[in-house]
């Protein structure tokens, strides 16, 4: 039996969502010889929960979760790391999201390998973690 996931909340109320959709990066991931040798497409979708009210009020990037910085860190990791499992890559990318900005309180990330499975458009994993889970 699976539990329903609850939306993360801040002391001041429900958190907002910041999304990065369809980030497509070429990298090495897999266990087969050709996957270890040839870069393949890796598709990443991320939802981060954070309180965005300060940024909305100030219009100052210093008050915002900088999704560009987070995306660049994820791209660099995908291009440089060579994990064998999609699960490992997704876990690494989760850690990057939390490490880049302390305002991020929860992350859901989907990491997929398009075309990796015959007759399927894509195959991958979806992970959800809160900052509390990652630090605890």
Q: Describe it for me?
A:
With 136 residues, the protein is α+β, with helices and mostly antiparallel strands. It has one domain: GTP Cyclohydrolase I, domain 2 (2-Layer Sandwich), CATH 3.30.1130. The chain has 5 helices and 6 strands, in the order E-E-E-H-E-H-H-H-E-E-H. Helix 3 runs antiparallel to helix 4. The longest helix is centred in the C-terminal third of the chain and has 15 residues. It is elongated and about 50 Å long. It starts with 8 loop residues before the first strand and ends with a helix. 20% of the residues are buried.
Give the total of beta strands: 6
CATH superfamily, by name, is GTP cyclohydrolase I, C-terminal domain/NADPH-dependent 7-cyano-7-deazaguanine reductase, N-terminal domain
Radius of gyration: 16 Å
**Helix count from the secondary structure assignment:** 5
Report the end-to-end length measured between terminal Cα atoms. Answer: 24 Å
- What's the CATH architecture name? 2-Layer Sandwich
Q: Tell me the strand percentage band.
A: 25-35%
Give the low-pLDDT segments: none
> What percent of residues adopt helix (DSSP H or I)?
25-40%
Mean pLDDT: 93
Order of helices and strands: EEEHEHHHEEH
Give the domain tally. Answer: 1
Q: In CATH's first tier, which class applies?
A: Alpha Beta
- Which strand order spans the largest sheet, edge to edge or round the barrel? 3-4-5-6
| Major beta sheet summary | 4 strands, antiparallel
Q: Quote the CATH topology.
A: GTP Cyclohydrolase I, domain 2
Shape: elongated
Give the oligomeric state of the chains in this entry, treating copies of one chain as homo and distinct chains as hetero: single chain
Main structural class: alpha+beta
